[in-house]
Amino acid sequence: MSVNVSFFGNMPDGKEVRLFTIKNSNGIILQVITLGATLQALYTPDKYGRVNDITVGFDSLYGHLNFTDYQGKVVGRYANRIANGSFMMNGKKVQLTQNEKGKTCLHSAGEFSNAVWDAEPVGDNAVVLSYTSPDGASGFDGKMDAKVKYTLTEDNKVEIEYSAVSDKDTVINFTNHTYFNLSGSAMSDVLGHVLKLNAKKFTPTDEDSIPTGQLRSVFNTPFDFTNPTSIGKRIHDRDAQLVMCRGYDHNFCLDHVDGEADAVVYEPVSGRQLKVYTDLPGVQLYTGNFLDGTIIGKGGIPLIQHAGFCLETQYYPDTPNHPDFPQCTFKAGEEYKSKTTFEINVF
User: Fold this and answer.
1) Which one of 177, 250, 306, 322 is the catalytic residue?
2) C-alpha to C-alpha distance for 108 and 215, rounded to whole angstroms
3) Would you call 111 a catalytic residue per the annotation?
4) Could you tell me where the beta strands, DSSP code E, fall in 46-122?
5) How far apart are alpha carbons 172 and 149 in whole angstroms?
6) Catalytic residue at 312?
7) Could you say which of 111, 250, 312, 322 is catalytic?
């Protein structure tokens, strides 16, 4: 195995964006770019040996800069939404940038996702990216030093390890926003993909996609993926939660069953299977509901509705405003660490 470094493009200010390519002996290729610490591509063989990129996104820097819906990007310092862009910390109100409809703070206004990270290869199968966020960025307290490490293993795992330290008390919640399509082409949607989630509860949301605070049972609802079920089987049900979001865009409360993946997705035609393991309490299932074919993605293919699915491992959305949720407040100098693994198989 080896790590190859190449030029990907220049930012409007001239800053260079680099591409890191890692290959293993099984034909799997992982590509990461320094803009947004983005998982740019993941090439994997199907059951016939044909190698395709199973991620949905853009071939060029231009696409990432002009049309992005966070395809492949690392999101921080707080992934997902915070209601009214505010929360209380140490007895005072923290007011954040309200970048979604002038109400919520979504993905911390994209700061980490739109930054060009420093990066260096580590050994022959990993790359470490680092970024420092200044105190007050998007309204958050504390200067934060963050690192993300991508590793491709010989047993076909992509390991993503996050670490961060702030010099003031703050909330920390990182994720990766890769859109997957295991067929290897965004010409087809992902509704035929079969999903299993080890999650007996999910967090329903209001009209602003903010959790109501309820932990609702998935049983007898379209949110029950405790047994393998195609993503599209119930996505058009007249469930109020699905109608409001035009599909799935919800946090599932992971049960972390010993010896089992937290999520498993299988695509019957290609035979590809993706397993997801994480130490975080939740995962956001998003099914590309607002893609509408107007944006052109890789290979000149329009990104149609449901062209990809995301499994964004995370703390629950709006956690700072829900004391009953698993908490993600970190003291000054306290290190945040987390690991999520994507394992690729073929059957």
Assistant:
1) 177
2) 24
3) no
4) 51-53, 55-56, 74-75, 81-82, 86-89, 92-95, 105-106, 118-122
5) 17
6) yes
7) 312
